[in-house]
Every structure is written in C-alpha cells, then in structure tokens.
C-alpha cells in the first residue's frame, strides 16, 4: 500500500529516555482517526524498511507501531529483562500512540515470546488505550525460563544482544492468532 512510514521516531519516556519506534499509517484509512496494532519488542522492532505488520494494517485500515525495548536497537537506556520499568515504558508508549493526530485512542498489542511479556506489562499499567492483547509463548513467571540451577540462561554478547539457552515454549496457533488479530483490528479501527 501507499501509506506513510516513519522510521526511528523518538518516543519520550517519563524518565527522559527515548524509545525508538517505526510508525506506519495506511493510505486506506476508514476514518480520520484510526486504531493501532503495537509490537513492543527487544527483537529489533525498528528497521529501515516498512514494518512486517504494514501489509495487514493497510488491509485492515489501522496504523502500526513497532517499538524497540529500552536499551536495544535504536532505543536509549539499558535493557534488563523483566525490568519493572517495562510497565512505565508500556504505559508511556500507549499514551504516546493515543495522543497521535491519526489515533482514535485504541491500541491492540501483538507478539510472542518477550513481546508477550511487554503486553503483560502494558496490561498491568492499566492504560485505557489498550483494548486488546494477543500474547503468545510468553511466561508469567520469568524465573524458570531465565535461570537454571541458579545460573542465567541469558548471556549478553559484546554487541549487546542476548543469547538464550532455553528450548521454545511451543508454537502459537498461527491461524487462530491471525483471526483474533483481524477481529481485534476491525474493532479497534472503528470510531
């Protein structure tokens, strides 16, 4: 589609750190103000190309925001897995999206693995902009998936990436997740 793509937009957090986000606003907007699909991730959410959700956003008439977690990729600060600041960051990110001129104030979050945990943090924030979440393969208790015999399963490499020494927790039912996202996008896109 011919929507607008904004690369590495700086989103201010309450402590002065800026998170980086890629924003895609579709050309076929059903209304002046539309809903948003948000992916908040440590897995290089920002990229020099149109975000992966953009084609679906164009089809469904909603915006997308792909944001890097604090301290990773293009975001400022320091990344610490399951940092309590994640709740504040999710809250600030949701408020920022709701305040955008194209936004109708409703956001659906998507993603699996750690992005599932960012959704749990966003739910905990109580931000009214968050109307639905689709977390998959996330964990409610990070200890078993991050420590084994008192030793971390995460190792930070020299280039600030994390290597995970843990088998997957299973795969999400992709078709079911797709249908849930489509229904949520339709609901969030209405004024």
Question: Mind explaining what this structure looks like?
Answer:
The chain is an alpha/beta fold and 191 residues long. Helix content is 28%, strand content 30%. The chain has helices spanning 54-60, 85-98, 114-125, 142-146, 174-189, and strands spanning 4-12, 18-25, 34-41, 63-68, 103-112, 130-136, 147-148, 151-152, 154-156, 162-164. The strands form three sheets. The protein has a six-stranded mixed β-sheet, with helices on both faces. Strand 5, helix 3 (114-125) and strand 6 (130-136) form a beta-alpha-beta unit. Helix 2 (85-98) packs across helix 3. The longest helix is centred in the C-terminal third of the chain and has 16 residues, at 174-189. The two termini are 22 Å apart. Mean pLDDT is 74; it is low at 151-178.
Measured distance between first and last alpha carbons: 22 Å
The count of DSSP E runs of length 2 or more, i.e. the number of strands, is 10
What topology, given as strand order, has the largest sheet? 1-2-4-3-5-6
What integer is the average pLDDT?
74
Can you write the helix and strand succession as a string?
A: EEEHEHEHEHEEEEH
General form: globular
Helicity range: 25-40%
Radius of gyration, whole Å: 16 Å
**What can be said about the biggest beta sheet?**
6 strands, mixed
| Beta-strand content bin | 25-35%
Helix/sheet category? alpha/beta
Uncertain residue segments: 151-178
Helix count equals 5
